[in-house]
Amino acid sequence: MATRLEEAEIAKSLDDLNEIAGDTPWIIKEGKLSKTFKFKSFIRAFGWMSQIAIWAEKLKHHPEWFNVYNTVEVQLVTHDVNGLSELDFQLATKMETFK
Amino acid sequence: MATRLEEAEIAKSLDDLNEIAGDTPWIIKEGKLSKTFKFKSFIRAFGWMSQIAIWAEKLKHHPEWFNVYNTVEVQLVTHDVNGLSELDFQLATKMETFK
């Protein structure tokens, strides 16, 4: 069972995540861990989504994501805890690793 | 190059599409051909998206779609013609065929 992260834990996890996030940082938007990814093509965008889909299923934690052509807008939240948990940061880290 | 469909053509194409759409019809929402698909699981939802992604690339026409867990919200529009074209109905038909 996931645990709801406190403000200070979120700030620390967000800093760690953004160390590997490159030019475009993750932000907390309406309580959700959010980032828009841009790829070179639809094939690259959807190929990345396919890798992340398998990780999501493996982690038993799934993203909210919107895709149009080469763009993927991601929002992560843990509904079970009504906030953010370690799972959101784990999935975000996978997203950065495989982009 | 796609051609912009007229109102009457859209109405006819929409009727034809909804003949195969089952219980949940496609609608035109804010000028876009729209439907929310529900699947039994994330694996089924994303598996379907993967099939459609390949069709989209083949048709050179890509959806706007939002996924969370077993739900996929689809919006189709042809930006080149600032409206709907035959391509939107072709892609929607693939979506119904493979769901």
UniProtKB/TrEMBL annotation, chains A, B:
It catalyses: (4aS,6R)-4a-hydroxy-L-erythro-5,6,7,8-tetrahydrobiopterin = (6R)-L-erythro-6,7-dihydrobiopterin + H2O. GO terms for molecular function: 4-alpha-hydroxytetrahydrobiopterin dehydratase activity. It is an enzyme of class 4 (lyase). Its EC number is 4.2.1.96. It comes from the Bacteria. Keywords: Lyase. The keyword Lyase applies. Coiled coil: none annotated. Belongs to the pterin-4-alpha-carbinolamine dehydratase family. NCBIfam families: PRK00823.1-3 (NF002018). This is Putative pterin-4-alpha-carbinolamine dehydratase.
